[in-house]
Write a structure and sequence with these properties.
By secondary structure, the chain is α/β, with parallel strands linked by helices. 39% of the residues lie in helices and 26% in strands.
Length: 237
């Protein structure tokens, strides 16, 4: 078996007296889309925030490409090749689409490369090209989600952490966003996906983990998870 690009072992995180994650272990190999399923409050977003080093970890190990992430600052994690698209998009509403994208490349210093990537992004995300000079706050929810993904790509990540990309979007826009996600993966980006729509997540990913109350309770191929009675009852209705 190939060495995983992301290797999390026995990860625990607490918010004060609340134990958010308890001994979570998971792996993601290069080229995969792996999904994290679970109810609200199960610890899915906390897992992504711990990988990004936005929150402190209590114990356990986080390794990316064999490198220990646990002592890194968030900007060093981005430099290492991991980008995080947070839940709720978090675009900078008073800045233009283009300025939001440029901020996505804040860890880079190659001006020519950044300019090339900016134009490539506008080719890939045609809606954003049409709104290049518009304030991000005037975009629709779907356009803001595209901007959040495109902004993350400006750091040239090899691993993309996606937190609830379909949240609050109309079904037609969700299909468009997930087509983009599949295209990114086909082009070589490894993806760890948190998605409330379990059916969509299981169709998109190759493997998955189920988080319940901060612990992994199930893991396997998405076909195995989709066929599991517990997953069907809890997440697939």
């Amino acid at each position: 078996m190939t060495t995983p690009v992301l290797d999390i072992q026995q990860l625990s995180v607490a918010y004060g007296a609340v134990q958010a994650l308890q001994a979570v272990s998971l792996t993601v190999s290069a080229g995969e889309i792996v999904t994290l399923l679970g109810a609200n409050g199960a610890g899915k977003s906390t897992t992504l925030r711990a990988i990004s080093r936005i929150i402190a970890i209590q114990s356990g190990s986080l390794r990316y490409d064999g490198r220990d992430l646990s002592s890194l600052r968030p900007d060093a994690v981005v430099k290492a090749g991991i980008a995080h698209v947070p839940e709720g998009r978090r675009v900078l509403t008073r800045l233009s689409v283009e300025d939001n994208l440029r901020l996505g490349a804040y860890v880079r210093s190659d001006k020519a490369g950044i300019a090339d990537d900016l134009e490539r992004t506008f080719t890939q995300f045609k809606r954003l090209a049409e709104r290049r000079k518009q304030l991000a706050g005037t975009l629709s929810g779907g356009e803001q989600q595209m901007l959040a993904i495109a902004r993350a790509l400006m750091s040239r990540p090899r691993l993309l952490l996606l937190d609830e990309p379909s949240l609050g979007l109309a079904p037609i826009i969700v299909r468009e966003i997930f087509a983009i996600i599949r295209d990114l993966n086909a082009a070589g980006t490894t993806i760890l996906l948190v998605e409330q729509n379990a059916q969509l997540a299981l169709k998109t990913a190759t493997r998955g983990y189920v988080l319940e109350a901060g612990s992994i309770t199930l893991s396997g191929s998405t076909a195995e998870l989709a066929a599991d009675d517990r997953v069907q009852k809890a997440y697939l209705g």
